[in-house]
Amino acid sequence: MNLNNDKSKKIMVAIAVPIIIVILIATFVVIQIGPYNKKNKDDIVVDIPTGSTLNQVTDILKENKLIKNKILFKLYVRVSNNTSKLKSGKYLFNQTYSNKEIINDLSEGKIYNDGIKITVPEGSTSFEIIDLLVNSKLGDKNVYEELVNNPEEFKKKFNFLDDEKIVSLEGFLYPSTYYFDEDQSEKEVLNHMLETFESKYNDKLQKRQKELNKSLYEVIDLASIVEKEAVLDEDRPMIASVFYNRIKIGMPLQSDATIQYIFKERKKSITYNDLKIDSPYNTYKVKGLPPTPIANPGIESIEAVLYPSTTEYLYFVATIEGGNTYSKTYEEHVKNVEQYRKDREERNNSYSTDK
Question: How far is Cα 204 from Cα 50, in angstroms, rounded to an integer?
Fold first, then answer.
C-alpha cells in the first residue's frame, strides 16, 4: 500500500475542490450579470422616476426582465461606485444588455430621446430657461420661479446645494439638450438639469475645487461671469485670471455682465448711469462676487475658473475679431479701449462704403 500516493491524491483533491468551487461561482456570477437573453433584441423602454433609490431601480429592471439577479446587480453598482450616479429618465434597453452596459447608460444619463426637445444654450439665465420651458408647454412659470428660488426643495437629493450661500438654482441648471415628457412636473424637469450638472461636475473637478480652497458657490458664481464675458474658449482661463487678480487686491470685478443681470431684458450696452445703480449685482460699486451666479455656465467656463491662466493682468477689452486684449495697468487699458473704438469705427465705415 502506497501511503504517499494516497496522501498526494488527498492533497490534489483538497486543492482541486476549492478551485472548482471558485470556477463554478465565477461562472454563475458571469452568467447572472450578463445579458438576460442574448437572442432577444426587442426594444424595452424603461422609465426611471426622479428620486428613485437603487432598490427601486433594481426592481424596475427585474420586472422588465433586463437583469437576472437583483443582489448581484446592486453589488455591481456599488463596486463600480455608481450608486449615486444613476439618473432618472426614459431608457431604451433590450435583453442583450449586460449589467455593465445598463449601469453605464444609467450613470451617464443616456436617456431615450422621445418627448419634447429643449436646448438650453450656455450662459442662459434661469429666467430665460423658464421662458423656454413654459413656451414649450412644460409647466407653470410661477411654479418654476418658486422652485428656482428655493434650493431647499432639492438639497436632500443634491448634496452639492447644501451651502447657505446657495440661495438659488441659478448656475446649476446645466445647459444641454433635454427631452421631457409633457406630463413631467416642474420639479422633475429641474431635477433632471441638476442631475446633469452633478454628472458634469465630476470627482476631478471637485478635487481641484478643494485644492484651490474654494466653495462650489464661488466656482460657479465666477464661472457664470466668465461665461457671459467670453466669446472665444481660449479667452476663458485668461478672463478668470483677471477676475482672480482683482479679487486678490480688493479691486471690484467691474463686470458689465453682472449689471445686465439686473435687467429683465438684456440691454444693447451698459451706460454710465447704469454703473450708479444700487444693487448687489453692480460689481462696479460692490466688491467681490454677486449674491448668486448670473447665468448657467458650460463646462469650459467652469474649468477655466478651476484652471485659470497665470497672469498679472487686471483689465481686458474686446477686439473686433471676438477675442480680448489684456493689460496690467489702467493706462494700457485706456489705450486698448481707444484702439478697439477706432477699429470698430473703421469697420463700420467700411461696411457703409461697401453698401
Answer: 26
